[in-house]
User: Fold these one by one.
Assistant:
Number 1:
Amino acid sequence: MSQKVTFENLWRKDPGALKKEIITIWKQHNPAFEENQAEERAKQIVYVVKNEFEQVVGISTAYKVYIKQFRNYFYSIRLIIVPEFRSQGMATELLVRSRDWLESVHQEDKPDPPIGLITLVENELVKKNKREAIWPASKMIYAGNSAKGHHIRIYYFKGATL
């Protein structure tokens, strides 16, 4: 990762003045994003990544969801990196930091603490180029495809039981 960036943990914190900037990024880079999602998603932020000018260039969010197929709760995790700042290293680092943080606090999320992470990989380049069954850095495991053809990846927290 050649860019100079900082990671700020905002899990269960008010994003304050960053909220407007974050919502703008979501709207600019996700055509399906609806304004009424903004307030709820802002409460789901795990990390923001800022460049050397303190501008937000990456965001991770997570929310607890019951996955019927796995008969357990997971954190559904989403990442967005502003295109000019995309690099293999930044997305991986944001995912690993978010994973590690959520793993460290998941037992506090009662009732029914999540047993891991789940994500949909929608980025066509990632689906084409990162085809390992288990991603080396994040340890996310390929678990099949969604109805829309997106890759489903999961990660189990250490000590997770089914």
Number 2:
Amino acid sequence: MAKESKHVINFRNNHLKANEKIVAWADGYIGKTMGKGKDTQHNGSLLITNTQVAFHRKGFLGEVIETTPLKKITSVERKSTLGFRTISIHTSNDDLTFKTLVDKDKEQALIDAIEAGRETTNPIAPTASAVNDDPLEILKKLGELKVAGVLTEDEFQSKKSELLAKI
């Protein structure tokens, strides 16, 4: 694994949420080369966590953070030209386009992390018939899903309340 950039370290220390972990990352930029205004080029890192995709840049005068929850991603587009790679992440109302010079394996690791996160962010919580009829066993499984980052705290608390009402 490559040494983490200052952008990754800063994100990990200041913006990573409880029960969130960085799964993959790469250095690159957003915006357009020589762009101005909203198209200004920002060099930084694309980070994939178990809950979100984040672009982070920590600079001398401030920072840039753009995040997209994995569960909101509708599609991911990839383009490669002479080793220059572009990953575009789309939601129903927003896009994030990240450009980098990473190798094909590193790009694939980013895509795999996004797709794995998209598949696990909308879990169907186990039902009594799927696990067994014991609400405590179901609660234990839900707790494991929460620790793994599959369930949010709110999703866990909602299911927990339903199960405790059955006891």
Number 3:
Amino acid sequence: MNFFLDTNTLIYYFKDQGHVAKNLLAVSPKQIFIPSTVVSELQVGIHKSTSPQKRTMQLHALLESVSITSFGHEEALTAAKTRAALEAKGTSIGLYDILIAATALKNSATLITRNTKEFERVDGLAVENWY
């Protein structure tokens, strides 16, 4: 099983909150993936951070041991279908979240997030909360 980490999961990991670190260490790094969209969101946070050097070092250390999954053509098609389906039901989620969900869906992975209420709206997406 492969696990894709949502932005909030990584923030909790970096701040040593909840049980994220324990759960992350219980899984092989080969099973851990970070969507490129999440990397972008984290970089925005780093640029706004009061300690950007520390946060940059934390991110780089993690990225050395896990894989980054790019958002490509197939993920874009899945994102468009997902967004249209959610909007038709009146249960839309944020744009970044749609991109993250589509990346996990396209790669048949479980999304690790504390934001389960939002992501559980996406049909077919496996979601776990490691907090």
Number 4:
Amino acid sequence: MSVRTVLTLPHPVLMATAAPVGSIDEAARVLAQDLVDTMRASPACVGIAAPQIGVSRRAFVVDVTGHRKAVSCHGTFVLFDPVIVSAEAPQPAREGCMSVPDLTGDVARATRVTVTGMDVDGGQRTLSVDAFEARAVLHEIDHLDGLVFLDRVVGPHAVFARKTYR
């Protein structure tokens, strides 16, 4: 279990579709812990996907606890082989990404999502998320499909230099 280096564009792993995990074994549990450790060590990070740490597998972690834009909040959760069951009410909002550290962009995403996948114990978990938590889940699933938020910006006018806070 450790904090892993976060890959940035144009690393090829970020642009490839991740392979299914299939079943939860010790390697999957180690991956889950590495995802959690890396997210927690990264200031303002609310989620990270396995491809971002160089592992081309369908797994991600999200935790929007305490975020001012969060409505639903399921705490820290890791999902393996996630599937979107339903998504509705898209709205544009600004996004950033650790794998695209110098830019942000306006992306239209569903504001209500139901997602299912396996948890770290191998059980099926279904979550209904909304608002910022829905955005975070969809952002991480995009990483599993080889996409970054720049692939979904509402247009070239909607990409911005990331603000630097001191």
